[in-house]
Amino acid sequence: xxxxxxxxxxxxxxxxxRERNKSQMSQLKTMVKKVRSAKTKEEAxxxxxxxxxxxxxxxxxxxxxxxxxANMKRKLTILxxxxxxxxxxxx
Length: 91
Description:
Layout: H1 5-37, H2 41-61, H3 66-82
C-alpha cells in the first residue's frame, strides 16, 4: 500500500488511465472485427475509414505503437480491397 501522498495520487491516476485504455482498446478491437466481418466492399469501406481514423488517433496518443497502427491499417485495407463488389444488373 502506498504511504506517500504522491504515491497515493499516482495510483489513483494509473487506475483511471488503465480503465480508459482498456475501454479504448476494446472499442478499437470491435471496429477491426466489424471491418473483417464485412461481406462486401461497399459495406466495409465506411467502417474502414472510421477504423483508420481511430487507429491514427490512438497511435498519436501512444495507446498503440505507430508501426502496429500502420500494419493494422495496411492489413485492413488489403482485406477490404480484396472483397468483391456486388454485381449490378444491367438495365
